[in-house]
Specification:
Blueprint (H helix, E strand, L loop, with lengths): L2 H14 L1 H8 L4 H8 L3 H4 L1 H24 L1 H18 L6 H29 L4 H30 L3 H4 L1 H15 L15 H7 L2 H24 L4 H23 L7 H6 L1 H31 L4 H29 L1 H21 L9 H26 L5 H27 L5 H28 L6
């Protein structure tokens, strides 16, 4: 790999790490935000929901937009948007404004993730697999180290620092990207006579609106009822409206020429569908621990942000160490054994959470973190291998997009699970209930992987 290719990778890597870094740092900031804005736990959880919902929508949309407007242009625009959001978010006069800037930040960082991999694929022709694996390290490393970084900077400089810390990354990435990312060739898709209607259809704007409004309405209905402790007619109405809109969304996607989420692909390839279902459940488990445990440590055990970040480091380090080992194992034995071991580890980790009491040594939490960290490393490689085995080669691009959608749905559902279990106050009893719920989900994954092993479902080439 030549010097120019290395600088291109650094330029792109510094940009794409901003999305996972900002999605993970906030896990340590929840108690601080709750205290500053005087909110209950359910309300402050929208700082997580908003980011993932916006990412789930923005990444595929921006991927399509880059085909029209150019990948370099979208990448640089994303950096500018992320810079503005990171600068204004700490100055938010209310929590509502903070959510707005958080959504803008998610859209900006998603613009880079949506096109970063494509830029590397197009402009680095030698050792392309190595280049893509290095970008994966930027992504997974930022996500894994986010809670530790967040814990350190919040402890010393307060919650606004988790936004200000983005500014040097953005500035350096912009300067390097301006210099090293080649200019876009004129897109053939941008014909002079291209109408707004064609652009509207290409991104499936009706599908995006139905999905967004339906999902948000359903979440508001469920979380409002749990937070208030009683189910009112308004809660039921909002929730039912959300369900109805999601039903209309499903019907629309089956008919759309260029669907936002190609549900017809799920219907046509059931083996691939089950891989995505499993991946969604895996992310429900992982991110429930990822977002739930820092709040447990700070609100129940009264551990400070710095110590919480250090403890959460064991999760990220175990994940990073396990991933390359998993790669060699899966190359020899296939994904099935690794996924089964991963499900068993998550089951043991979930059971361990249930056995914790209010006087258990805080260091004992590291056992659950280690179990989930190793399982995440196994899943990072194993689920991707399972996807490739279950997806025909001619649709692998679509399959990868659906795979990322499943990841985001899992993260959204994990936040919903925590909100429903906890309600307005994060408590030790609620944390134990969360552990029980995670144990049930983990056992279902053990069963799914065992059945898949017997049936040879992942054998498809």
């Amino acid at each position: 790999m030549n010097v120019r290719s290395r600088w291109l990778m650094i330029s792109v890597g510094l940009g794409i790490l901003l999305n996972p870094l900002n999605s993970s740092m906030v896990s340590v900031a929840i108690p601080s935000l709750q205290n500053v804005f005087q909110l209950d736990f359910t309300s402050v959880s929208w700082i997580i929901f908003s980011f993932y919902i916006a990412s789930a929508i923005a990444q595929p949309v921006m991927g399509k937009a880059s085909d029209l407007f150019g990948r370099r242009r979208i990448f640089l625009t994303g950096l500018v948007v992320a810079f503005i959001a990171s600068l204004l978010a700490p100055l938010s006069p209310s929590f509502g404004w903070l959510i707005v800037f958080r959504i803008v930040q998610s859209i900006g960082t998603s613009m880079m993730v949506g096109v970063g991999m494509a830029i590397v694929r197009i402009h680095i022709t030698e050792k392309q697999a190595t280049a893509l694996s290095v970008l994966s390290i930027f992504l997974s490393g930022a996500a894994a180290l986010g809670p530790f970084i967040g814990g350190v900077i919040i402890h010393w400089w307060g919650w606004p620092a988790i936004f200000f810390v983005n500014i040097p990354f953005v500035a350096v990435s912009f300067l390097l990207s301006w210099r090293n990312i080649p200019k876009d060739e004129t897109s053939t898709s941008l014909a002079p006579g291209m109408s707004f209607r064609k652009w509207f259809d290409l991104i499936d704007a009706p599908g995006v609106v139905l999905f967004t409004v339906g999902l948000v309405a359903l979440l508001v209905g469920l979380l409002s009822a749990k937070s208030s402790g009683q189910i009112s007619l308004s809660h039921v109405t909002v929730g039912l409206v959300g369900l109805a809109l999601l039903g209309v969304f499903v019907r629309h996607e089956f008919k759309a020429a260029s669907p936002f989420i190609p549900l017809r692909t799920f219907a046509k390839y059931p083996a691939m569908t089950w891989v995505n279902v499993e991946f969604m459940l895996v992310n429900v488990l992982y991110y429930s621990l990822f977002f739930g445990l820092p709040s447990y440590l700070q609100m129940v055990r009264h551990v400070n942000e710095l110590q919480t970040g250090i403890l959460m480091l064991s999760l990220g380090l175990c994940s990073l160490v396990a991933s390359p080992i998993a790669g060699r194992w899966i190359d020899k034995s296939g994904p099935r054994p690794a996924l089964l071991v991963s499900a068993i580890l998550m089951t043991l980790g979930s059971i361990w959470l249930v056995t914790l009491n209010q006087t258990s040594p805080v260091i004992s939490v590291c056992l659950a973190l280690a179990a989930f960290g190793i399982s995440n490393g196994l899943n990072n490689v194993g689920m991707q291998a399972a996807l490739f085995q279950s997806s025909p080669k001619e649709i692998i691009g679509v399959a990868s997009g659906l795979f990322n959608t499943s990841r985001y749905l899992g993260t959204i559902l994990s936040s919903l699970l925590i909100g429903i279990v906890m309600g307005g106050t994060f408590s030790f009893e609620g944390f134990q209930m969360l552990g029980i719920a995670l144990t049930v989900i983990a056992l279902s994954l053990v069963f799914m992987n065992w059945r898949r092993r017997e049936s040879g479902q992942l054998q498809k080439s």
